[in-house]
Design a protein that fits this description.
Layout (H helix, E strand, L loop, with lengths): L9 H15 L12 H12 L5
């Protein structure tokens, strides 16, 4: 679990972890809890552009 202030790079952490998990174990799943719907939609848009996620 990570709890950090705004602007400290949290949004960068979970795509890296999700991508690493998929490379080491195909079909792996990452669960991300976001505080707002807008942020969740932004994360979905970002991840859908990455191959394999």
């Amino acid at each position: 679990m990570v709890s950090m202030p705004t602007g400290s790079g949290k949004s960068l952490l979970f795509p890296i972890a999700a991508n690493f998990g998929r490379e080491t174990e195909p079909g792996a799943c990452a669960i991300v809890i976001t505080p707002t719907v807008a942020l969740a939609l932004d994360h979905e848009r970002t991840l859908s552009a990455l191959p394999g996620l």
